[in-house]
Design brief:
This protein has helices at 3-7, 14-26, 34-46, 61-69, 83-95, 110-113, 134-144, 166-171, 176-190, and strands at 51-55, 75-80, 103-107, 122-127, 145-153, 195-200, 206-211. By secondary structure, the chain is an alpha/beta fold. It has a seven-stranded mixed β-sheet, sandwiched between helices. A hairpin with a 5-residue loop joins strand 6 and strand 7. Helix 2 runs antiparallel to helix 5 (83-95) and helix 3 (34-46) packs parallel to helix 4 (61-69). The chain starts with a helix and ends with a strand. It binds S-adenosylmethionine. S-adenosylmethionine binds next to helix 4 and strand 2.
């Protein structure tokens, strides 16, 4: 079995395919890979998530995966700077069968919005927006998560990180800002005793970490 078969093990269904098509039509936002989505759903289910924060709503793909793993009646709070993407996401959540009050969509820059969310009130935080801000999203996530909650970063290993080999780093050194964001968060998570990390080789790296209990 090839690697592709592993990646496609949990395929996208109609609502996810529609969300992906809307993202392609609008452009400028990239839905999570199906394999990343399947991990998000798994993690949300494993921690029994009732509340989650998503940074980077896009057209709703990752939100659907998260909500599908969360407990019945749960709430996803999702932040994005682009109203048109969030309009599409709202449609996608409805098409996937979720009630409007399960999806709290907040328009704005994540670093402006996150300080308004309550300490220790969330079971899961998923970061999929501006990689340069990932270290700040980590700080916010540590405040927002309850003990035993999980934070995940999509594309955590964007080019040039100290965890990549030299060849990969050289190839992608044309965007050092992005590289620095990804690099920082991978190193920060690995060295934080409050976190139990795992790095999965999906896309540009899916980094997840469980916040230890008190
Ligand atoms: C990779 S896409 C998210 C895709 C989405 N998670 C999905 O699976 O469909 C990144 C998103 O982050 C949003 N974004 C970029 N910078 C942001 C910021 N500073 N705060 C909030 N959202 C931001 C973009 O508008 C874009 O929709």
């Amino acid at each position: 079995m090839g690697l592709l078969a592993y990646a496609d093990y949990v395929p996208e269904d109609e609502p996810l395919l529609a969300a992906r098509a809307n993202a392609a039509d609008l452009g400028g936002t990239e839905p999570v890979l199906p394999a990343v989505g399947a991990v998000l759903r798994f993690l949300a289910c494993a921690v029994g998530a009732k509340t989650a924060v998503e940074i980077g709503t896009g057209c709703g793909s990752s939100g659907i995966w998260l909500l599908r793993g969360m407990r019945p009646g749960s709430t996803l709070t999702s932040v994005d700077t682009e109203p048109e993407y969030q309009r599409m996401a709202r449609k996608a959540f409805a098409q996937a069968g979720f009630a409007q009050n399960q999806c709290r969509l907040i328009l704005g820059r994540a670093l402006d919005v996150l300080p308004r969310l309550s300490d220790g009130a969330y079971d899961m935080v998923f970061c999929d927006a501006d990689v340069r801000d990932y270290p700040d999203y980590l700080t916010a996530a540590l405040r927002l998560l309850r003990p035993g909650g999980v934070v995940a970063f999509n594309n955590a290993l964007l080019a040039g990180t100290d965890l990549q080999d030299g060849a990969d780093a050289a190839e992608s050194s044309d965007d050092d800002d992005l590289a620095d964001g990804g690099s920082d968060v991978a190193a920060l998570v690995r060295s934080d005793d409050r976190l139990v990390p795992v790095l999965l080789p999906l896309g540009q790296g899916l980094l997840a970490a469980l916040k230890r209990g008190d």
